[in-house]
Amino acid sequence: MLDDSDAATVLALEPIFHRSPPRSGRQVFEAMTAPDYFEVGASGRVYSRECCIDVVTGRYARGEEPDDSAWQVVDPQVREVGDGLALVTYELHQGPRVSRRATLWRRGAAGWRALYHQGTPAG
Q1: Contacts of 98 by beta carbon, 8 Å cutoff, 6+ apart
Q2: N or C: which end of the chain has fewer CB atoms below 10 A?
Q3: Per-residue pLDDT tens over the stretch 23-74
Q4: Contacts of 104 (CB under 8 A, 6+ apart)
Q5: What is the torsion angle, in degrees rounded to the nearest 10, for the CA atoms of residue 93, residue 94, residue 98 and residue 99?
Q6: What does the alpha-carbon distance between residue 114 and residue 83 come to, in Å, rounded to a whole number?
C-alpha cells in the first residue's frame, strides 16, 4: 500500500529526467528507469529508454541543463494502481507550453523506477 512517504518520493522525481543533480550522468538516469522503460512524446512518437537517456545526458554534457525554476506542476496526483505500482499525473506549465503528464512508477529493492511516461500537449 502506498503511504504519504511513497507519494512524496515519486512526486519529487517529476518531471522525470528534470529533477536530478547538476551534470548527472547516465547511471543516475539508468537508476531512475526500468530496463524496459519507454515514453510517448508530444508528437505521439515512442522513445526507448536508451534514446531518452542519450538525449538527456547529451544535454547535460553540453551544459544545457533545464532551468525549471519557472515551471509549475499543477494538480499532482499519485494513485496506487497495483502492488508497488504508482501512477503519477499532473499538468506541467513550462511558460506558454502546457502538457498533461503521466508516469508509471514501480517500487523495488533499489527504490522507485519509472516504467512508462507520456506527455500530451494541453490547450
Answers
A1: 91, 92, 121, 122, 123
A2: N
A3: 778 999 999 999 999 999 988 999 999 999 999 988 888 888 777 788 899 9
A4: 81, 85, 86, 87, 88, 114, 115, 116, 117
A5: -90
A6: 15
Chain centroid to Cα 72, Å, comes to 14
pTM, entire model: 0.92
Q: Which residues contact 65 (CB under 8 A, 6 or more apart)?
A: 22, 23, 59
Distances (CA, A) of 106 to 17, 32, 71, 86: 16, 10, 25, 6
* Cα–Cα nearest to 115, from 18, 16, 42: 16
Amino acid at 90: Y
Q: 4-120 — its CATH code?
A: 3.10.450.50
Amino acid letter, 60: Y
Q: How far apart are the first and last CA of the chain?
A: 34
